[in-house]
Amino acid sequence: MIYLHKILPLFLSPVFIVLILIGVGVIFKKRLPCLIAATLLWALSTPLLSAQLFRYVEQYSVKSALNKVPKVSAIVVLSGMLTDVQSENGIVTEWGDPDRFFGGIDLFKADKASQIIFTRGKMPWGKSNETEGDYLKKFALDLSVPETSIRLTKEVQNTRDEAIGVRELLDEKSLDIILVTSAFHMPRAQFLFEQEGLKVVPYPVDFKVSAQQITLMDFLPGAGALSMSDTAIRELIGRLYYKIKAQF
To answer: pLDDT digit string (tens) for 95-118?
Structure first.
């Protein structure tokens, strides 16, 4: 099932749609589909449009102030920040983006909860034998977080699994949590966690759009902007999928 979740959104990705339009234009010898493809590719590759699209996906949220975050039963840090790379000594783990981890650590150090939960994310195609949660626990211990305050979920593959795994760790009187994940991922994650009966205080991190003024460079296409647009569209597809699924 996890393979379908990863593969199916490809058919609605910007690159796939552009290729289909070009193919239609070539096969039927029509210029219009090719022109639409070129325009779409340029638009989604410009930092100006990709940034606006990403702000929409992030629901225009801003980084929360620690002193305004309430105290809860548990801090939950979602997986998705580590990557496996080849080294001279075999496969090793490196940070992709550590904001989720350090956001959770900051909350714990600020005494916002007595326990911090890491989800044990692991994909079938992953090269490491350990889950992400196992690695994060080691990093947390290195930062003097007591082992008695660290909890791990069962092995999980997606956000739905994470929500179920966290719910299984908490009793009925301790369902209030601070959820730590990337800003663009927060709306979908919060929805899924609340479906499991958890009371969620969102703590978005890992914001992808820099705070800056518009310049000429924002109108020039680039691979980074196209990647952001693709990520945003995938996230919107994921939200739609779970919203529809919740109706049945």
So the answer is: 999 999 999 999 999 999 999 999
The CATH number of the domain holding residue 81 is: 3.40.50.620
Beta bridge partners of 223: none
Q: How far apart are CA 117 and CA 192, in angstroms?
A: 17
pLDDT in tens, 144-178: 999 999 999 999 999 999 999 999 999 999 999 99
Dist CA 145 CA 154 (whole Å): 21
Please count the CA atoms within 13 angstroms of the CA of 72 that sit on its side-chain side.
25
Q: Which ranges in the chain belong to alpha helices (H)?
A: 2-7, 14-27, 31-45, 47-57, 99-109, 132-142, 159-169, 186-195, 223-245
Model-wide pTM > 0.85: yes
CA-wise closest residue to 188 among 231, 222, 217: 231
β partners of residue 118: 77, 152
Domain that residue 36 falls in? 2-58+219-245
**Pick from 232, 189, 236, 187: nearest CA to 208:** 232
Residue 37: inside a domain = yes
